[in-house]
Amino acid sequence: MNKKNNKNSDILLRMENIDKNFPGVKALDGVLLTVRKGTVHALMGENGAGKSTLMKCLFGVYAKDGGKIFLEGREVSFRNSKEALENGVAMVHQELNQALKRSVMENMWLGRFPKVARFLPFTSEKKMYDETKKLLSELHINVDPRTVMAKMPVSQRQMVEIAKAVSYDSKIIVFDEPTSSLTETEVEHLFRIINMLRDRGCGIIYISHKMEEILRISDEVTVMRDGKHIATKSAKEITMDEIIRLMVGRELTNRYPEKAHEIGEEWLKVEGLTAEYTRLNDVSFTARKGEILGVAGLDGSGRTELLENIFGISARRSGKITLDGKEARNRNARESIRNGFALLTEERRATGIFGILDILENTSISSLDRYRTGLFLSKKKMRESTKWSIEAMRIKTPNQETKIRSLSGGNQQKVILGRWLLTEPEVLLLDEPTRGIDVGAKYEIYQLILDLAAKGKTVIMVSSEMPELLGVCDRIIVMSGGRKAGEVDAKTATQEEIMTLAAKYA
Ligand SMILES: Nc1ncnc2c1ncn2[C@@H]1O[C@H](COP(=O)(O)OP(=O)(O)OP(=O)(O)O)[C@@H](O)[C@H]1O
Ligand SMILES: [Mg+2]
C-alpha cells in the first residue's frame, strides 16, 4: 500500500513558496507541499495555521500572492474552482456549502448538468438520476438521488459531498476535516473510499485534528505553524507526541488539566425524560453543583437528543426537570435560558454562527442582558467580555471587529463556545465542545470547563472521544438505544466498561 520511491515522476503536486495575505494577517508565508501519486498526505497544524487557506489557493478560491504550483510537472494557477475541477483537482470543504432545497443529484451536477445530447441545450433528468445512482452505489452510499438535501442529516450530506468530489475523476482530492460531522461507521466508510482512491493512484490531501485518524490513514505528514511549513515526515517514522510538539511549538506534557474543583450538593434532577418523536426513553439522572457529568454512547444512542430535550428544543412527551428544588419546565430555548441553562449545539456551523456579524457581536448576542445599562447596551462591557473570550481561548484574529466568517474553522468554534460560557449558566450543556479544535486549544477549553465547575456550575458534556470524557469528567452516564444504560465513576472506569454499557440496548 505505501510503496513509495522518491522518483520525481511520482510527484503529482508541488506547491512552492506559497504566500497569502489577508488584511492584518499573513496567512501563508513561503509554504511548501509535495504530494506523491498513490499516497495520503496529512496536513496538520493548530487552528488558524493556514491549512484551509493553502488548499483554497490550490483550488482557485483564493488567488495566491506569491509562489508556484505544479501539477504533474506543469505549472498551473486556477482562477476558480471550476478550472481546478476541470484539471483534476477536487476539494471537500470544511464548511459544507450545498443547495439545501435542491436534491442530491442536482447538488451532484450543479454547474455541469449532463446534456441530453452534446448539441441540445436541455439537461437530462434521467441521465442525471442514472449517473448519480451509479456513482452512489459504486461507493456504497445508501441515498436516493431524488432526496432533498435539507431532509438529510449533516453526516449524509457530507457523504454526498465526498461522492461529488470523487465523481470528477480527479488526480488530487483534498479533504478538509471531512470527519468532523461523520458517524463512526461513516468514518470507516470514508477510509475505504480513500484507500480505493489511493490504489487508483490519486494523491489525497487530508486535514484533520483527530490524531488517531492521521496516523491510521496517512503516508506522509506535513505540519504547518503560523502560516509556515514546519516539517514533512513519513507517517511511519513520526509519533503522535512529535506531531503535537511540531504543531504547538512546545512540549505538551499533559493532555488534560489537573482537577481541583469540589463537588457540592445535588442540584439538577432529571426524571423519566421521554421524547415525543425520537428514541429518547425514560432517562433519569442527577447532577451536583460543580460536577462535570459526561454523556457517552455510540452514534444514534440519544446523546444529543438528551441535551436537546433538556433544553426544550425537541418535543418532550413526559418527564420532569428540577433545578435547585424548583421545576424547570424548559419548553423552549428562551425559557431554558431564563431558567439558567445553556446549550452549545453539535451543528454549530449550521445553527450557531452569524457569518456577517463580527466577533464582538457573535460573542455578546446571547448575554445582551448583562450589557444593558438603562436603555443602552454598554459597548465597553461587551468589549471586555469579548477580550476575555479571545484571550481565554487564544482565538486567532486581528481584532474584535473581524467578521466571524473570515476566521479559521476552529477559531469560529471557539467564538461560539465563548458566547455560551459568558452567559454564565447554572447548567451548561455541551455537545462535542472540542470538535474541530486543535490539541493545544483543547487543553485551554478543558481548563475553562473545570473553572466553571469550580465556580459551582454544573456541566453536562457529550463527547465521542472517550479519553476526553475520562480525562475531564467526574462521572459519566452511558446512553444506548435512547435509554440510559448505566453510570460510571470517571476516576475508576475503563473504556471497555463504557463500551460494554454502550452496546447494552444498541
Ligand atoms: N477570508 C479571509 N479573510 C481574512 N482572513 C482570513 C480569511 N480566511 C482565513 N483567514 C485567516 O488566515 C489564517 C489561516 O486560516 P485557515 O482557515 O487557513 O486556518 P486553518 O489552518 O484551516 O485552521 P482550522 O484548523 O481552524 O480550520 C487565520 O488567521 C484566518 O483568520
Ligand atoms: Mg481550516
Write the layout of secondary structure elements.
Layout: E1 11-22, E2 25-36, E3 39-44, H1 51-59, E4 66-71, E5 74-76, H2 81-86, E6 89-92, H3 104-109, H4 125-138, H5 154-167, E7 172-176, H6 184-199, E8 203-207, H7 211-217, E9 220-225, E10 228-234, H8 240-248, E11 266-275, E12 283-288, E13 292-296, H9 303-310, E14 316-323, E15 326-327, H10 333-338, E16 341-344, H11 348-351, H12 359-364, E17 372-373, E18 376-377, H13 379-392, H14 409-422, E19 427-431, H15 439-454, E20 458-462, H16 466-472, E21 475-480, E22 483-489, H17 495-502
Parallel strand pairs: 3-8, 3-9, 6-7, 7-8, 13-20, 13-21, 16-19, 19-20
Antiparallel strand pairs: 1-2, 1-4, 4-5, 9-10, 11-12, 11-14, 14-15, 17-18, 21-22
Helix pairs in contact: 13-14
Bound molecules: adenosine-5'-triphosphate (ATP) and magnesium ion.
Question: Could you describe the 3D structure shown?
Answer:
- It is a single chain.
- With 506 residues, the chain is an alpha/beta fold.
- Helix content is 32%, strand content 25%.
- It is built from 17 helices and 22 strands.
- It has helices spanning 51-59, 81-86, 104-109, 125-138, 154-167, 184-199, 211-217, 240-248, 303-310, 333-338, 348-351, 359-364, 379-392, 409-422, 439-454, 466-472, 495-502, and strands spanning 11-22, 25-36, 39-44, 66-71, 74-76, 89-92, 172-176, 203-207, 220-225, 228-234, 266-275, 283-288, 292-296, 316-323, 326-327, 341-344, 372-373, 376-377, 427-431, 458-462, 475-480, 483-489.
- The strands form five sheets. Strands 6-7-8-3-9-10 form a six-stranded mixed β-sheet, sandwiched between helices. Strands 16-19-20-13-21-22 form a six-stranded mixed β-sheet, with helices on both faces.
- It is globular and about 70 Å long.
- The model has no long low-confidence stretch (mean pLDDT 89).
